[in-house]
């Protein structure tokens, strides 16, 4: 049990400290600066940071998707803030970013290329051909469905309270369905994903890359 707990902790650290943070810090910077500098200066500072991150990733030959997601979220949020300037605008960057990722998650399911697989690919660098195997993809599809439900519920509540300028309830929603819920879902996703891969009986990433014949050991670490 202690071994599995340590494994989950290490995998969670890998996901949260990877390139996904490129999309997480711009809304936070914008929210902090907006109350001190105003909408436009805060947006320009956060967007400049996102572009700098994208350039840095490109120079290192790494993916820039998350950096541009952060940039897009700030651009949309700052634009909307001009038309609806109220106290709840503090939460607008997170709402816009949440809306974008909800749509992306839903479309990834409709296209048969689940977001959970892309997130894992960008974080770990595993070949996409492994994720799309019939004995692998269902695990990532099911996890993406759970993500989409969480994203949609959170976005619906956020929009409802935002349009009512109900800062108190908006704060409650962001507190409960924010980072704590995200971490909880990531942990459950990992545990379920490893179990589902075992049930599906597909090869591990290494076995797939090396085109090894059955019987396969399967993916026992990392999802």
UniProtKB/TrEMBL annotation:
<keyword id="KW-0812">Transmembrane</keyword>
<protein>
    <submittedName>
        <fullName>DUF3159 domain-containing protein</fullName>
    </submittedName>
</protein>
<feature type="transmembrane region" description="Helical">
    <location>
        <begin position="65"/>
        <end position="84"/>
    </location>
</feature>
<feature type="transmembrane region" description="Helical">
    <location>
        <begin position="37"/>
        <end position="56"/>
    </location>
</feature>
<keyword id="KW-1133">Transmembrane helix</keyword>
<feature type="transmembrane region" description="Helical">
    <location>
        <begin position="90"/>
        <end position="111"/>
    </location>
</feature>
<dbReference type="Pfam" id="PF11361">
    <property type="entry name" value="DUF3159"/>
</dbReference>
<feature type="transmembrane region" description="Helical">
    <location>
        <begin position="139"/>
        <end position="163"/>
    </location>
</feature>
<dbReference type="InterPro" id="IPR016566">
    <property type="entry name" value="UCP010219"/>
</dbReference>
<keyword id="KW-0472">Membrane</keyword>
<feature type="transmembrane region" description="Helical">
    <location>
        <begin position="175"/>
        <end position="195"/>
    </location>
</feature>
């Amino acid at each position: 049990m202690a071994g599995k707990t340590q494994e989950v902790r290490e995998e969670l650290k890998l996901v949260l400290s990877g390139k996904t943070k490129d999309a997480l810090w711009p809304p936070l910077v914008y929210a902090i600066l907006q109350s001190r500098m105003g909408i436009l200066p805060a947006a320009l500072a956060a967007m400049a940071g996102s572009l700098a991150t994208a350039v840095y990733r490109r120079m290192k030959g790494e993916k820039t998707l998350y950096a541009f997601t952060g940039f897009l979220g700030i651009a949309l949020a700052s634009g909307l803030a001009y038309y609806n300037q109220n106290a709840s605008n503090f939460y607008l960057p997170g709402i816009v970013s949440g809306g974008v990722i909800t749509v992306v998650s839903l479309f990834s399911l409709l296209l048969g290329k689940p977001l959970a697989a892309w997130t894992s690919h960008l974080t770990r660098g595993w070949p996409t051909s492994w994720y799309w195997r019939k004995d692998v993809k269902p695990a990532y599809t099911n996890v993406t469905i759970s993500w989409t439900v969480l994203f949609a519920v959170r976005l619906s509540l956020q929009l409802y309270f935002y349009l009512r300028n109900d800062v108190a309830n908006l704060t409650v929603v962001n507190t409960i369905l924010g980072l704590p819920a995200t971490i909880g879902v990531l942990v459950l996703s990992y545990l379920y994903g490893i179990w589902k891969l075992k049930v599906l009986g597909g090869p591990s990433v290494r076995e797939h890359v090396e085109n090894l014949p059955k019987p396969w050991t399967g993916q026992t670490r990392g999802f």
